[in-house]
Amino acid sequence: MARMTDDPDHHPTRLPGYHEGPFGRRPELLADRRFWAMHLYPCAQALYRASHAWGRQREFNRRVWERADWPAFTVALAGGHRLHVVYRTIEGDAGVDYLLHHPDWARAELLASVDGHFMGPGLSWPELVAAADNATPGGSTTDPHARLLLLLPAFGDRACPADATDRLAAALRARVGVEDPEPVAAAILEKQGLTGPTGWTTTAGGVRVNDGGHSYRNPANHFALPPEAQARVTAALSP
Which of 58, 77, 184, 204 is the most exposed place for a label (fewest CB within 10 A)? Predict the structure, then answer.
């Protein structure tokens, strides 16, 4: 399969080993609170219910999911690595995929999917924060709040630090406009989306793995990433 190519802002036009797309650049969605209500629904259904009038939100969702192209967002990481969040707008098989890639890799590694058959988590809390905060230019946004929320549905970690609620609350206030975000952030971190809290450990070889029953990063699962891919992912996401 052809090697992935990017535009100057690291936006994918092809991801080897993944669907052909077509991928569409939609950075303007990141400034729309209706997008965040939709995107964060797996983590915080209360945000969705409180976001806008039901009819307006449903119409917004419909326009996103009925697009011919696939809205895709990129978080640029150090060393040329990129995390891609892809809205897979296939009728009957729609979902949001979280992939990690580097131009030298033969394929993009699927870390998590939010759809009718949820797979994940793909990110620990330290990895999520490191991806949000790294200063690598390019991608769909350099705003750490937007990057944190973009990647949040792929996260699961039962060992979140004491300041995690404050960090998430700041992002919810800044990007979603939640007036009292601390209780919402605390609830998100307690339930942690579709997987619930997941335990992470580091193997003797320095590879970060978890115990999630639906995670590609749990070596005990028959569908897990192979060992060499696990090591690549750990190195790319290392805080």
Answer: 204
Annotate 112-125 with DSSP letters as a single string: EEESTT-BB--B-H
Q: How many C-alpha atoms does 143 have within 13 Å on its Cβ side? A: 15
- In tens, the pLDDT along 20-48 reads 879 999 999 999 999 998 999 888 876 65
Buried b (16+ CB within 10 A) or exposed e, 66-76: eeeebbbbbbb
- The Cα-based distances of 147 to 55, 96, 182 in angstroms read 28, 15, 19
Its pTM stands at: 0.92
Task: Read off the pLDDT of residues 88-127 as tens digits, 9 standing for 90 and up.
Answer: 999 888 999 999 999 999 999 999 999 988 999 999 999 9
